[in-house]
Amino acid sequence: MAASIRTLALKVLSDSTRNIHHVSRCRIKHLCCRARIAGCRGYSDSTEGRSTHFGFQTVPEEEKAEKVYKVFESVAKKYDVMNDAMSLGIHRLWKDTLLHIMNPQPGLRLLDTAGGTGDISFRFLEYTRSMYDRQQRLKAKSHQTPSWQDIANHYVSDEAGCPQSRAVVCDINKEMLKVGKQRAEKAGITTGLSWVVGDAEELPFDDDQFDIYTIAFGIRNVTHIEQALQEAFRVLKPGGRFMCLEFSKVTNPLLARLYDAYSFQMIPVLGEVIAGDWKSYQYLVESIRKFPDQETFKEMIEDAGFFCVQYFNLTGGIVAIHSGFKL
Amino acid sequence: MSHALRTLATGIFSVQRSVTVLPLLRPVSAVKIRGQHRSRSDGVKGSESQPFDESLLEFLVCPLSKKPLRYDEKSNELINEELGIAYPIVDGIPNMIPQDARMIHKSSSTEKPTES
């Protein structure tokens, strides 16, 4: 009698383990699964069964992060070349516009999330340095006949050095950061730039640390966008600025049709020819379609606690810059 | 006239050639300088390809507990004493993903099972 019950129990357990990978329907079975596979997935699986989008596919949430990681791992080396090819070089103008809207003063601290190869950080450091030079020149111009006191003060302030702007590039993908670091060394940028491997949903930074938080073409790859926005709110100083550069909904219907045709016909082909990876670029264009439009994203940013949220459409809405302040 | 054009054209190409040679020189010298730096700091920091920037520790914290970390030079890791985990530093870049961290037990150290 006991033996038959035991075999029955074992059968139930073995049945349930076979069902692990499917959406668990029964709570009891779910608990059996968890007890059985104690070693594998330690976290309480309240998210098990919830799925999200990976391009046009539907995947379990746990898988999305891994799939996105694999996409960027495979495209890392050719990332910059592909950006130039796909956007015909226009991505440089978009990033320059982001910097112009940001208009950073020298001495600020930037967190470049999903910074990857470091495009935004390089531009930030260059911008602040040229701005500092310009300020020094204006100061020199206005002091055409300086007194001895002024000259003495000038020497003192020069020794202290210009206020050091700091950029921290954070990305979940080591390969992208490696490529970025090599680029920095080639460009000769050594001071003021740091590289950290980290998750945008769980930033390894203390509260109230950064003046500016940017995420350029990265937030659509995050599994839980609201969490990333909340983390952004946490690490920003009061008065800090959140800026997001991302593909968005095209406003003009004619342009939308041309853009769709270009995206779905040309971009995966370019991906195959240049980077040897059709699927990753198919994911890219699909993920753009899945991302919320300008107004919806603006509301998400406001929900996270940011004020004065506004967006700027670039190139007819192909790309939008959202900006908000932590007040 | 054609002779002048030809010399002009070759002049442009020779300039281009010299321009492309220069960028090749720069990374070589950068590598040499780095190599010297490495040999100098080898005694202090151990065998790592690039030194870790300790000024990051000002605002770098554990992503799970948001508490400050301790930099361990010998094992080249960032250690959170409270939770007993160590984040590795690869090529001077700290890896702050919890799944890649190593658990440090008081008696032995075991690998934390990596998820997905």
TrEMBL record, chain A:
<keyword id="KW-0496">Mitochondrion</keyword>
<comment type="subunit">
    <text>Component of a multi-subunit COQ enzyme complex, composed of at least COQ3, COQ4, COQ5, COQ6, COQ7 and COQ9. Interacts with PYURF; the interaction is direct, stabilizes COQ5 protein and associates PYURF with COQ enzyme complex.</text>
</comment>
<dbReference type="GO" id="GO:0008425">
    <property type="term" value="F:2-methoxy-6-polyprenyl-1,4-benzoquinol methyltransferase activity"/>
</dbReference>
<dbReference type="GO" id="GO:0031314">
    <property type="term" value="C:extrinsic component of mitochondrial inner membrane"/>
</dbReference>
<comment type="function">
    <text>Methyltransferase required for the conversion of 2-decaprenyl-6-methoxy-1,4-benzoquinol (DDMQH2) to 2-decaprenyl-3-methyl-6-methoxy-1,4-benzoquinol (DMQH2).</text>
</comment>
<keyword id="KW-0831">Ubiquinone biosynthesis</keyword>
<feature type="binding site">
    <location>
        <position position="171"/>
    </location>
    <ligand>
        <name>S-adenosyl-L-methionine</name>
    </ligand>
</feature>
<keyword id="KW-0949">S-adenosyl-L-methionine</keyword>
<keyword id="KW-0472">Membrane</keyword>
<feature type="binding site">
    <location>
        <position position="117"/>
    </location>
    <ligand>
        <name>S-adenosyl-L-methionine</name>
    </ligand>
</feature>
<feature type="binding site">
    <location>
        <begin position="199"/>
        <end position="200"/>
    </location>
    <ligand>
        <name>S-adenosyl-L-methionine</name>
    </ligand>
</feature>
<dbReference type="GO" id="GO:0032259">
    <property type="term" value="P:methylation"/>
</dbReference>
<dbReference type="InterPro" id="IPR023576">
    <property type="entry name" value="UbiE/COQ5_MeTrFase_CS"/>
</dbReference>
<dbReference type="InterPro" id="IPR029063">
    <property type="entry name" value="SAM-dependent_MTases_sf"/>
</dbReference>
<dbReference type="Pfam" id="PF01209">
    <property type="entry name" value="Ubie_methyltran"/>
</dbReference>
<comment type="function">
    <text>Methyltransferase required for the conversion of 2-polyprenyl-6-methoxy-1,4-benzoquinol (DDMQH2) to 2-polyprenyl-3-methyl-6-methoxy-1,4-benzoquinol (DMQH2).</text>
</comment>
<protein>
    <recommendedName>
        <fullName>2-methoxy-6-polyprenyl-1,4-benzoquinol methylase, mitochondrial</fullName>
        <ecNumber>2.1.1.201</ecNumber>
    </recommendedName>
</protein>
<keyword id="KW-0999">Mitochondrion inner membrane</keyword>
<dbReference type="InterPro" id="IPR004033">
    <property type="entry name" value="UbiE/COQ5_MeTrFase"/>
</dbReference>
<keyword id="KW-0808">Transferase</keyword>
<comment type="similarity">
    <text>Belongs to the class I-like SAM-binding methyltransferase superfamily. MenG/UbiE family.</text>
</comment>
<keyword id="KW-0489">Methyltransferase</keyword>
TrEMBL record, chain B:
<dbReference type="Pfam" id="PF03966">
    <property type="entry name" value="Trm112p"/>
</dbReference>
<dbReference type="GO" id="GO:0005739">
    <property type="term" value="C:mitochondrion"/>
</dbReference>
<comment type="similarity">
    <text>Belongs to the PREY family.</text>
</comment>
<dbReference type="InterPro" id="IPR005651">
    <property type="entry name" value="Trm112-like"/>
</dbReference>
<protein>
    <recommendedName>
        <fullName>Protein preY, mitochondrial</fullName>
    </recommendedName>
</protein>
<keyword id="KW-0496">Mitochondrion</keyword>
<keyword id="KW-0809">Transit peptide</keyword>
